[in-house]
């Protein structure tokens, strides 16, 4: 079990890093969730180059967070590893909110976000918040 964990996490790190590199440098825009399912008309309203750079950088940072968490777990610093791993949740919330600036479909004619977009982001952030709190509680009680 102890031997498999670093291999599994290493694979995850390489996968996320590879996705970030493909999106940012090799224009694999079809890997961007949501963008790949948009109609051609909707895609025209998206700053895909800016979004790809943002998502690519986000994946690279996510791979770094996972790498640091893995190192902490390997040197038996479970608490620090858990904290680094838990950092993915607020980082994900940040990414969801900030990525909206590249999507013209979620904006009114005056440049403000539509009510529907605000509601969708609010629901997603709330779900991530409840999930992270729930996982934190489970981790706390499992360590007792």
Pick out its properties.
144 residues; mainly alpha; 6 helices; flat
Commentary on this structure:
- By secondary structure, the protein is an all-alpha fold.
- It has one domain (4-142).
- Helices cover 70% and strands 0% of the residues.
- It has six helices and no strands.
- The protein has helices at 4-25, 40-43, 48-74, 78-86, 88-98, 115-142.
- Helix 1 packs antiparallel against helix 3 (48-74), helix 3 (48-74) runs antiparallel to helix 4 (78-86) and helix 5 (88-98) packs antiparallel against helix 6 (115-142).
- It is flat, with a radius of gyration of 18 Å.
- The model has no long low-confidence stretch (mean pLDDT 91).
Q: Which SSEs are present, and which pair or pack?
A:
Elements: H1 4-25, H2 40-43, H3 48-74, H4 78-86, H5 88-98, H6 115-142
Largest sheet entry: none
Q: SSE order, as H and E?
A: HHHHHH
The total count of helices amounts to: 6
Q: Roughly how many Å apart are the termini?
A: 21 Å
Tally of individual domains: 1
Q: What percent of residues are in strands?
A: under 5%
Structural class from helices and strands? mainly alpha
User: Total number of β-strand segments?
Assistant: 0
What is the general shape?
flat
Give Rg in angstroms.
18 Å
- Runs with pLDDT <50, length 5+? none
Mean pLDDT: 91
Q: How much helix is in the residues?
A: over 70%
């Amino acid at each position: 079990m102890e031997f498999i964990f670093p291999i599994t996490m290493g694979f995850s790190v390489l996968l996320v890093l590879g996705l970030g590199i493909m999106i940012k440098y090799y224009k694999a825009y079809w890997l961007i969730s949501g963008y790949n399912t948009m109609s051609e008309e909707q895609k025209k309203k998206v700053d895909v180059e800016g979004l790809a750079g943002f998502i690519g950088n986000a994946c690279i940072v996510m791979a770094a967070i996972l790498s640091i968490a893995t190192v902490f777990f390997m040197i038996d610093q479970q608490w620090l590893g858990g904290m680094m791993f838990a950092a993915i949740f607020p980082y994900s919330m940040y990414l969801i909110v900030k990525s909206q600036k590249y999507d013209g479909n979620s904006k009114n004619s005056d440049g403000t976000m539509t009510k529907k977009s605000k509601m969708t982001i609010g629901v997603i952030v709330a779900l991530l918040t409840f999930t992270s709190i729930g996982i934190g509680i489970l981790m706390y009680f499992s360590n007792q």
